[in-house]
Amino acid sequence: xxxxxxxxxxxxxxxxxxxxxxxxxxxxxxxxxxxxxxxxxxxxxxxxxxxxxxxxxxxxxxxxxxxxxxxxxxxxxxxxxxxxxxxxxxxxxxxxxxxxxxxxxxxxxxxxxxxxxxxxxxxxxxxxxxxxxxxxxxxxxxxxxxxxxxxxxxxxxxxxxxxxxxxxxxxxxxxxxxxxxxxxxxxxxxxxxxxxxxxxxxxxxxxxxxxxxxxxxxxxxxxxxxxxxxxxxxxxxxxxxxxxxxxxxxxxxxxxxxxxxxxxxxxxxxxxxxxxxxxxxxxxxxxxxxx
Amino acid sequence: xxxxxxxxxxxxxxxxxxxxxxxxxxxxxxxxxxxxxxxxxxxxxxxxxxxxxxxxxxxxxxxxxxxxxxxxxxxxxxxxxxxxxxxxxxxxxxxxxxxxxxxxxxxxxxxxxxxxxxxxxxxxxxxxxxxxxxxxxxxxxxxxxxxxxxxxxxxxxxxxxxxxxxxxxxxxxxxxxxxxxxxxxxxxxxxxxxxxxxxxxxxxxxxxxxxxxxxxxxxxxxxxxxxxxxxxxxxxxxxxxxxxxxxxxxxxxxxxxxxxxxxxxxxxxxxxxxxxxxxxxxxxxxxxxxxxxxxxxx
Lengths: 291, 298
What we know:
The complex is a heterodimer.
Chain A: H1 15-47, H2 51-55, H3 69-77, H4 80-111, H5 117-126, H6 133-145, H7 152-156, H8 163-173, H9 178-186, H10 191-202, H11 204-220, H12 223-229, H13 238-248, H14 255-287
Chain B: H1 8-36, E1 39-40, E2 51-52, H2 56-61, H3 66-101, H4 108-117, H5 123-133, H6 140-147, H7 162-187, H8 191-199, H9 204-215, H10 217-232, H11 236-242, H12 253-263, H13 267-294
Antiparallel strand pairs in B: 1-2
Helix pairs in contact in B: 1-13, 3-7, 3-10, 4-7, 5-7, 5-11, 7-10, 10-13, 12-13
């Protein structure tokens, strides 16, 4: 980053006003950060409270004696291990599929020339802006006709390719030098080998970002899983299992339970993001998009 | 250019998985939605059992019966929800974006990360946590309102405030994402533009109005369109917390279409609603583009 781009040069102003301005700036930033973090902090704190503490009016902010009882209670209501495994299968397999299909199609749209390329790409791209609800009803029926309803395969299959991934890969593969590809061809490499052995390593940071986007998106995805898995809670990913915690006990007694469950569901995507957020932000900045 | 027809077979092979999947699971269902909207069809039966009724479903949507009333309320709720979301997200993301972009701000990177991290939180967890924050007596938000002599607000439990309360949690979750988009837009504005304007004696407010905002127009147009499409998808807070109430005040399109088309299995009617929603979106996006194109003269 260069200089303060949207404020006038500070040197033009008296020293005291500069200090005031800087202080105000930092106060504003601090307030924004606190406001962003507060709900998540409240979630974690509440998950550590006793049921009595969660019911008090006015609310208690800090648990007097933090306890993991609520987490134990969650494990008594839902099979946490199973739910995590289901989430992992859904998000993991979907992500692997998206990476493979996006690489291949992105490569073709970036480096192959064929009649109708622009039109086909435009049609693919348009689907990126389609809200899922528009196709939900027939899609539900199609997956049922394929005998995949109430199964993880039914959740996964329709999402193995998406327009965002293709678009992202095309953008980055376009920047891979043609000489690199031509050299591999002269060595007798097949196009498939070129995609996965030459192109993929060359766009590794974008692939990492796409993997994170896809994994987090499908870890969090709710509407489609709910529609496909209707009521079969052995197949539920963790985000769907949370609804069972809510209905388990509709009194304020279950606050700690719900907060502990929410904390568990939030941890994997947040940890992934913390580890790899540089890729995320860089990729958005360079393409202006996420899925 | 470099790749001639000799790769024709490979072109097809490499495209087949994506085009096949998107074709079968996105394009075909889109066409089917339109086709089903002209039929009476139970979602529990095969497509072959659909019975042609022409514009019958659409007549119901715009008729005086309860089907039409509920649909129009869901449409209006969704429009209000989207408008409020955009009206809050765009100015906030510009403000945070300019803030994070300040070189003088220590910890700008940390702030950007904290803001963006909420975008990683599953909407279901956001809904659950905020339903507790909003809790009338045990929630901290009414406690804080009390400190400054306001409230208590009924938040999710009153038809007057429930939809707005969901807008707030949506804004909280998404503002970091749009902030990053704005930062991306800001980095593309050349510094010499600001330097030249400063030499001419322009003050900060003037720089912002005459350089920053106009040059962010494309970013803001894109942000607005994405915010609109995201807003239409609101589902979890409604499905879990409010069930569309109180008195239908949070019944939004994604929730309503799923309830009609999947839960009540009125597939034809639900499809007509989906088509109406899609048309409304197309009109709104086209209007946004037209507006963005016209503004320079103003």
